[in-house]
Write a structure and sequence with these properties.
- It is a single chain.
- This protein is mainly α and 109 residues long.
- The chain has a single domain, classed as Multidrug-efflux Transporter Regulator, Chain: A, Domain 2, CATH 1.10.1660.10.
- It is 61% helix and 6% strand.
- The protein is built from five helices and three strands; from the N terminus they run αβααββαα.
- A three-stranded antiparallel beta sheet has the order 1-3-2.
- Helix 2 (16-23) crosses helix 3 and helix 4 (53-67) packs across helix 5.
- The chain is flat and about 50 Å long.
- Residues 13-81 form the HTH merR-type domain.
- This is MerR HTH family regulatory protein.
Length: 109
Amino acid sequence: MSVSKLDDEHYPAFTTGQAAELLGVEQPFLRSLDAAGVVSPERSEGGHRRYSRHQLNQAGRMRVLFDEGHNLISAQRILELENELTAAYEEIGALRARLGEDDSGDAPR
């Protein structure tokens, strides 16, 4: 495995057992998120789930939302909205960079 793959947050590097240990959850929790479509891990040639760092972050956030008392539907929606907001902020930053503005939003003089 090359180092560049390890830098890729979407590279499926973790087994279900490793992912569960890193997140401090049981493996059925991760399988339930897969069944609900919250995370969709890739499969190895043998059919075993492989999770990326990005998916671990999503699963970890779901765990926090469950711990705060949210049900699956509301936790999924919160996660979706957070992801959309992050994407919007990234797009705004890219557009500002194209316009030559700094992060404060002030136009160059």
